[in-house]
Design brief:
β2 (about 25-30), α2 (about 30-40) and β3 form a beta-alpha-beta unit. It contains five helices and five strands. The protein has helices spanning about 1-5, 30-40, 50-60, 75-85, 95-105, and strands spanning about 10-15, 25-30, 45, 65-70, 90.
């Protein structure tokens, strides 16, 4: 994820000590229902959703990390829950489409 951080010019919001975590796929979405249906265990979740439900969703689908796009930043309670769950959070100013495209071009696939 160090490479992902660099490619997306992302800030680490929490979990800097877990950036060695390997992600096996990527999934970009702003719909909870689609994320529940299509995200896969081991994925990197890219989203503009910043509420606490996104942390719960990541736990349910066994995501390895979340990247918040479009300059979105979650509240401190959301970051705190991610810390409890050992879930790295990153944030980029890039749009979802652009972020997914960069990662796809670099070899990260949906599954």
């Amino acid at each position: 994820m160090h490479v992902i951080k660099k490619m997306l010019h992302a800030d680490v919001l929490c979990g800097a000590d877990r950036l060695d975590t390997e992600v096996t796929s990527g999934f970009g979405c702003d719909l909870i229902s689609d994320s529940l249906c299509f995200a896969r265990p081991g994925c990197l979740l890219l989203t503009g959703l910043t509420n606490v439900q996104i942390i719960r969703l990541a736990e349910m689908v066994e995501a390895r990390a979340i990247v918040f796009v479009r300059g979105k930043r979650p509240r401190e309670d959301v970051i705190g829950l991610a810390r409890e769950k050992n879930l790295p959070l990153l944030a980029t100013d890039m749009f979802l489409f652009e972020s997914c495209g960069i990662l796809y071009q670099a070899g990260l696939r949906s599954f």
